[in-house]
Fold this sequence. Notes:
Structural class of chain A: mainly beta
Helix content of chain A: under 10%
Structural class of chain B: mainly alpha
Oligomer: heterodimer
Strand content of chain A: 25-35%
Number of helices of chain A: 2
Largest interface: A-B, 15 and 12 residues
Largest sheet of chain B: none
Shape of chain B: globular
Strand order of the largest sheet of chain A: 4-3-2-1-5
Shape of chain A: globular
Strand content of chain B: under 5%
Number of helices of chain B: 5
Distance between the termini of chain B: 39 Å
Number of strands of chain B: 0
Order of helices and strands of chain B: HHHHH
Number of strands of chain A: 5
Amino acid sequence: MGALGFRAGDPVTVRATEVDHHHRTPWFVKGKSGKVRRVHGAFFNPESRAHGGDGLPKRRLCQVEFQQRDIWGARYRGNSDDVLLVDLFEHWLEPAKP
Amino acid sequence: MPAVHDRGGLPTDQPIDRSDHQWEDWEHVTNALVGVLRRRDLINVDELRRGIEAMAPDEYESSSYYERWSASIETLLVEKGVLTEAEIDAVAAKLDSEWGR
């Protein structure tokens, strides 16, 4: 598996890249790791369309499952097995280091 | 420090407001205007969001949902040369005068 082409079950880490342009990755998952639960399909890239582009190439959108405690750490007071699902574009993901 | 619109996960003690919004007429019109602009391929939803995110943080914080849409529409239509700031300001001044403000 290369940098793109994620599949359900793949462990991934969200890139923590600083960008100035419109993007759909929330700050609180940047740099965090989880696993792909589902791949929704390919969509026009909003980062391109937001700035007058044609949205190509399409990017695949992945539903990524995070453990709540991995995102919030000690601040999280819910159940230890609670998860958070976030839809993220594939180019914001990289394979998690084992 | 997340951008002003990037709200998820920021701590707050405020309870979640679950009441239904009662939209005013101008808010319905703003919603419809975005629909028309999108249908005519003058703007797209990603640009609308980008325009909202470009608002000055204090303006963003003090604006309601449709005020943000309205600000974004203004930014985009001026950027795309559909309207000028002068044209918008002239109509706003005229309305202020008609409405006695």
